[in-house]
Specification:
Layout lengths: L1 H9 L15 E4 L3 H5 L12 E2 L11 E8 L2 E9 L8 E5 L15 E5 L6 E4 L3 E2 L2 H6 L7 E5 L11 E3 L4 H4 L3 E6 L17 E10 L3 E4 L11 E6 L2 E12 L2 E6 L2 H10 L3 E2 L9 E7 L7 E7 L8 E8 L11 E6 L6 E2 L4
Parallel strand pairs: 10-15
Antiparallel strand pairs: 1-4, 2-12, 3-4, 3-6, 4-5, 5-9, 6-7, 8-9, 10-20, 11-12, 11-14, 12-13, 13-16, 14-15, 15-16, 17-20, 18-19, 20-21, 21-22
Amino acid sequence: MAEKAIKAIQEKTDGAEETDGAESDILFSKMSFSKEINLARIQLGRDDRVVLDTMTCPPYKWICAIKYSKGSTYVYGTGFKINFPHVDCSVVLTAAHNLWDEQKKEKPRTITLKFPGEPSFEVDKTNFYMPDEYKSEKNENHDYGLIFYRNGSTTISDGFGWTTQISDRELQSRIVTVCGFPLDAYHIPPQIQDLKMSITGGEITNVKQYRLEYITDTMGGQSGSPIYTWYQGYWTVVGIHTTGTVGHNSGRRLDLQVIARFARVMDCQKALQSVRNTQAHLRCKPDSGLSYWGKVNCQYGAPGNFEKFYVYPVAMPPSLATADILPQFVIESVHHKYWLFYMDY
């Protein structure tokens, strides 16, 4: 089905008529649902989306519908699980505006998540995050959010592979897929378990530092969908779909800033100890008078401030990957922010 959608997108003409739209999430009034729905339609020429009947196999089983009630309206969106190492919870990425009540300037008390083939469940606002820059400015470069939860019906490590290491050159003109839960087929507010997933593909037309722009058809409800591509033998996420405008759709590119913030929220601090001597810990302390470099040595005994690090994954295979695909990491000192380890051969 993905191949069918991608082939259809490739056949689009450059001069196709475009339809105005807004951000890909949507607020549905309980009294005027059908009127609201037309505001979020971002269709570029012919509608090339494919509705999925079977959603319980990878990667579709990692994509969830999001819903919460806001006064007299409902907010719908999409999220997706990623394989995030060394945490004791499941990790879902989405758009920040799926987690933020702009009128009240606050998070909703709870949100409901629904994965294919699994019962829906609620997540409390203490378990989701979006950047302060989005709350204060609605800056699209910070339109990304994190949901972390523990639910016995799901496997913690289960999820998409992803990367922050794919270059601008590799991304330019690359075919990507956007898959989520659009709402244009409904004339009354749907129950979350009734939502149907659709998939579409298209070419990346513009690669920016924080944003990716691409030719796909998206509709209300698809904000927070994964932007993924075939990379190193697996479907790999490279961004989060957030916005539809005239002529293209766009999303937040996955980069170290996004992943580092998520790791800090989940308090992924580590003390790095020797395998041979478990009392020896890696230590990072600057030389006196030097602010731009420091020495790395070892501390014998219990780790202190200089022996704590954030270990950021920067590329992860999907949870179903075989052992020949290795994750990649960057290490940052907790005590000295922005001091990053690199390997020099």
